[in-house]
Design goal:
Blueprint (H helix, E strand, L loop, with lengths): L1 E6 L5 H11 L2 E4 H8 L5 H10 L12 H8 L3 H25 L5 E4 L14 E6 L2 H11 L4 H10 L3 H7 L2 E4 L4 H20 L4
Parallel strand pairs: 1-3, 1-4, 2-3, 4-5
Helix pairs in contact: 1-9, 2-5, 3-5, 6-7
Length: 200
C-alpha cells in the first residue's frame, strides 16, 4: 500500500516518517531524493547551474542550497523552473525505490505532495498539521534561517485548507512529542489494517 505523507515546513512530518519507519513501514524520503538528483556531477545540478548561474554552486562543486533558496522562494517562476528540472528526476528515483520495497506499507515523505497535485497517486494521504506560529518557532530553533525566510517558504507552500482537502488522515502536532507518538501508533494500526485488506 502506498501512503503519501505531507505537511508544511516545521509541522513534524519528518518525525512522523521516522516513527513510521521504526514501526515497520518502508519510507521513501523525497527530500533525500531531491538532494540525490542535484548531487555534484549529476546532469540535474548542471541544468540548475545553467538556469540559475554560478552563484548557486559552492566552491567545492556542490549546490549552495541557501543561495538557490533565496532565489526560488522569492520568485514563483524561478521555483517553477527548478521544479521542472528536479521533479521528473525525483519521480524516476521514486519509481526505482518503490520497486525495491518489500514492506506492505510504503510511506512517501513528500513536502510538496499537495502543491504538485499528486494526492491521487496514493492509496492513503496523511497530513501532519501544526499552527503556523508553532511551526515558525520550530524552524527558527532548528535551522540557521531568518523569520522572513521561513515565512516566504510557508507562503510558497499549500495552506492547511488545501492539505485538509486531500487528507485521509490528519495528525495534529500542536502538542507534546508523546502525544504525537501516540497518534502515530494509532495511525500505524490503521495502515496495517488497510494493507491487510488489500487497499491498493
Amino acid at each position: 500500500m502506498w501512503v503519501g505523507l505531507t505537511g508544511g515546513i516545521g509541522s513534524g512530518k519528518s518525525t512522523v516518517a521516522r516513527e513510521l519507519g521504526g514501526l515497520g513501514a518502508a519510507v521513501i524520503d523525497a527530500d533525500r531524493l531531491a538532494r540525490d538528483v542535484l548531487a555534484p556531477g549529476t546532469d540535474g545540478l548542471a541544468e540548475v547551474a545553467e538556469r540559475f548561474g554560478p552563484d548557486v554552486i559552492s566552491d567545492d562543486g556542490s549546490l549552495d542550497r541557501s543561495a538557490l533558496g533565496r532565489i526560488v522562494f522569492a520568485d514563483p517562476q524561478a521555483r517553477a523552473d527548478l521544479e521542472a528540472i528536479t521533479h521528473p528526476r525525483i519521480r524516476e528515483l521514486t519509481r526505482r525505490a518503490r520497486e525495491a520495497c518489500s514492506s506492505a506499507v510504503v510511506v512517501h515523505d513528500i513536502p510538496l505532495l499537495v502543491e504538485t497535485g499528486r494526492a491521487d497517486d496514493y492509496d492513503v494521504v496523511i497530513v501532519v498539521g501544526a499552527s503556523e506560529e508553532l511551526r515558525l518557532q520550530r524552524v527558527l530553533r532548528a535551522r540557521d534561517v531568518t523569520e522572513e525566510q521561513v515565512r516566504k517558504r510557508m507562503a510558497a507552500q499549500a495552506d492547511d485548507e488545501a492539505r485538509a482537502a486531500v487528507a485521509d488522515i490528519w495528525i495534529d502536532n500542536d502538542g507534546t512529542p508523546e502525544q504525537l507518538t501516540s497518534q502515530v501508533l494509532r495511525v500505524w494500526e490503521q495502515l496495517k489494517d488497510l494493507a491487510a485488506r488489500g487497499r491498493r
